[in-house]
Queue: 3 jobs
Job 1
Amino acid sequence: MPKKKGSAKGKKGKGKKKSLKSGEVPEIWVKNLMKTYERNCKNVNTVMVPNLRKLMKDCIENNQMLVKIIVEPVPMVTKDDPQVQVEPLISAIRQERYTYLKDLHVWDMPLTHENMAAIALLLEKGFYPIRLLELMDCLIEPYSLDRLAKSFGFCSTLTTIVLDYNEFGDEGCKCLCQGLLNNETILSVSMCYCCLEESSGKMLGNVVANSTVRELYLDGNDLLCEGAMELIKLCVNKAETEEYERAEAKRQKEELEAEAALKEKEGRFGTAMSAGSGDEKPTSAGSKPGSAKGKKKKKGKKKKKKEPPAPPAVGPWIHKLHLADNGIDCYGKGGQFAPLVCMRLFKSLITHSDCLKELDLEDNHIGDLGGKLILDALTERKEAGLPGMKLKTTTRMNADTFSAIVKLATGLKKKKKKGKGKKKKKK
């Protein structure tokens, strides 16, 4: 029997490759990137990342763009086995001008100054839309971090930086902060277990006040009470000022409403008096306010054009602050009164800041009085009608106080790090 015409058309349609709006075919882009990456690895006697190679093949089969890359080491059998390196991949991205990469992750790999310079050059080009850069446990040195931070001013798409488990200390933090102040897009910075001490608190406080950074993840450092206070001091001052402005605006609104109500009452009284004297005739049915609605012509709805999102605001606003295991207790320089003074400042931040969404103070022995201040702050925040927030604190306090805190503030979910546990801090 002769074949149906419709069946032949259906077979032809299946063979067509889907392309993007710009006309680019994802399969071709990823295939070229994979070939160049493989060639670069052979030239320097290294191996490709096995998981990345598999992901590239999947993207080629499914005709999808590769937007997320994870670089991680390969287990060694002998000392002479070739290892994974970052530079062949970065070179391949630049050689093929692969401008579809958005997230770059490097895990558990020592990064030399040359490697950091290669990543910095990728960011400095400006046309690679990288939004997330994660370099976790890469033995990054302060001078290498300084080279990377200098590239932040040229990258207008970068929003998130993760540098956890790199023990570059206060010197590295200083280099990073200088780069953050020159950037207008970075919103979130994570430096957990990076050996930061109290002097880093002041530098990070300056960054929050004078840049777009609004989320800080600093678990497992040694900021102590003094560093934590320096970090949030400017944010507290701004929150108190905004609270005063909100109270003033509310008072003025109430005064205007009371004045308008009084005028309306006087107007009704005057109308009633004139109606009683019979000077004015009652209004006709046609002059009723309801009749005017029928005469109005319906206007066609115009489609509103979508405007591009506004750039992030610069100012001392903190949205998410994680300070778990930072030595905020009575064993630091300030003695037994230090956590109390510190918690008073946190109380003011919680009470007055309407943008604060998350606060993590777990594994910091703030004591019963500190817990009571946190509870009072959450209560006052709720009474003031500010948005709810997530808060996590230590259990080492009065059981009733801790239970009340849990009821007023929902718990936080910890970020899961691949193959990472808590590192011991150097003292």
Job 2
Amino acid sequence: MGPLRNIVVGAMSKDQEMIRIKSAEGHIFIVDRKSAMVSGTIKSMLTGPGSFTENEQSEIHFPLISTRILEKVIQYFYFKLRYTNHTPNPKIPEFNIEPEIALELLMAANYLDT
């Protein structure tokens, strides 16, 4: 896998809480809640009215999104969070997307409202 790594989580506040995001192949990414909420779909699952199982278990399974695509989407969560309203550095680096995954990535981003 790429630069994402699973980490061990200690006691944290709700804003610092980590969630698990599971791909179609069963790979689990551990992502901080704030970054994951870049996705409108994930935000709705974690904060919406009602009692979503995903919110109670802090785990979301996306059975139709492959590990490779989900990893790229999660990289974008962190990228967007870092560079949104980032004024000290006016030059924002390009977020590289390999052409061979562009269509599948677009479909996943559309579903995740990212």
Job 3
Amino acid sequence: MFLLVVCVRVLMGVLSESWYVPDETWQSVEVAHRLVFGTGYKTWEWSVGIRSSLHPLMFALPLAFLQTLGLHSQYLVVLLPKLTQAIITATCEYLFIQS
């Protein structure tokens, strides 16, 4: 069952090509990209230090892994945070189904 839930979420992440930029992107993936690659937009919340870095770190670690391997193509930099979130979401959904 867990594998099915993960496959559905990963498939959704791979096939999703919409242009939707919620605040979560600007407060997580964009910050993680800036942390790893040195470029990216930093919102005012980060300038004054009112945000926790835990959420962006969730995406920064896989992005840093890509950079270390020299695999930081635009496609992978966009896809990897989607896959990371897909696995986290699938895990939560599976645990919810099991409860």
